[in-house]
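Open question from group meeting: does this chain pack into something compact, or does most of it stay loose? Before anyone orders reagents, we agreed to write out a predicted structure and look at it together. Recording both the input and the output here so the notebook holds the full record.
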Amino acid sequence: MRLDSGQLGVLATVQYRPRLSQGSRADRRAALQEAFASAVAPILQRIGGDWDPDSVNVSAQTVKVLIPYDSYGKVEGELPPGSFRIDELLDRQVVQEAAGGAA
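Structure tokens returned:
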């Protein structure tokens, strides 16, 4: 995947680790967007990455981000300890086994 700058990027999710259980779904979405905007977005902006505020998943407490490949390992170390987790998004394809055992 490529960033707007042409750099190779890694598509990942950032999870907000403290469990948000109070308030309505809309309140939790707003709290997550604020947490990502204040802690994750400045780091991504500085290194040339990007995030999609509309991709916030309230149940998983995640947001999709695009991180420059060369900076992927640095990002997690710059986030507040214990508050966020980064996981690379992997494409997985399920292949159904054909009759007779051949896939």
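Observations to bring back to the group:
DSSP finds two helices and four strands in the chain.
The mean pLDDT is 89.
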